[in-house]
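Dear Dr. H.,

I hope your travels went smoothly. While you were away I took the liberty of generating a structure for the chain from your last submission, since the lab meeting agenda had it listed for discussion. I wanted you to have the full record in hand beforehand rather than looking at slides cold. The sequence, exactly as received, is reproduced here:
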Amino acid sequence: MLKGRNVLIGITGGIAAYKICELIRMFKRQNANVRVVCTENALNFVTKLTLENLSKNPVSINEFDVEKFNPEHISYADEADIMIIAPATANTISKIANGICDNLLTSIVCAFKKPIIIAPAMNCNMWDNPIIQDNLNKLSKLNYKILEPESGYLACGYEGKGRLCSVDVIFEEASKILNQKQFLSGKKIVITSGGTIEDIDPVRYISNYSSGKMGLALADIANEYGADVTLITTCDTKRNYQIINVKSAIEMKNAVEKELENSDCIIMAAAVADYRAKNISEQKIKKTDDDEISITLVKNPDILKEISNKKTSQIIVGFCAESENLIENAKTKILQKGCDYLIANDISRKDIGFSSDYNEVTIIDKHGCMKKLSRASKSDIARQIFETIYG
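The corresponding predicted structure, in token form, is as follows:
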């Protein structure tokens, strides 16, 4: 089932390295082409000859082994459809999380733009180290797939969490990614993210607590599913798809309207300020002896409602952030806005929503049908949103 797919397996210096021999066999049985790259320490636990016989390909270790004048870390990154690092030591995880490229494996990771699975294995105390956990969280936020280790008796004599997860789990996760339908291929998806900034004077502004994480997750997953993605955002971010940076609601409206005609779907995940200052002072407003100051606010355009009225065949998706009466308010809003879907999330909860890496939402369509997505990472929520819209 994996015929023609190119799998790159990175092995680091942990005792679980011997288990990767069976993982290579599993991919070969499915007719995948397997290449292996090892750190020098990995060869203390499994031999190069064994890995070459199993993979039917040369095994690379050194960073400056060059084939046909192509730097190996670039050619490997270009060729592979997926990269698996197993076992991943605390050392290698920390290097990757901090952009250190001091061997062939970490250099490949730095140049790799496709899915990467990391399967850690280490002593339980090392696993619990907050520095290692911070590095893993950092990688998870960057869309690396972390397959957590299992608990049990460890080679070092300790008992706890740190054993490499089953190679079956690694194989199944990789197969799922490789067989994932690129069902958004050919679709132009426009997504907004972040909270708009409405100037009062050169140093003050009106905004909100939106971090832009949900919109960014949606854009990342749409890109992963093969869409032509445009992210219109107030946040400073870099991705390999089109980013349009804006600041205010008016700027966001202009950018969205410019993209509307050529888009298949627009998802308004941004938190657009409802009001802006009627007059923006060109100079900093000085403090006076008065106890009060008045600033006249005017209503910002309702971007979601306006594009819903202008759409032709596009799918328009809005977001609804509520602190009370979530479903009732969402049902009212979807009727007012005229969009195809409204995604409601509860901002009163501290474990989801603004600034959190997790969310829990209810999707309501224009016919009133509802689907609740239980608490999960924003990336997982984004996957489920697209599967609901295009499923």
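Two observations you may find useful: Residues 378-390 form the longest helix (13 residues). The two ends are 23 Å apart (CA to CA).

With kind regards,
E. W.
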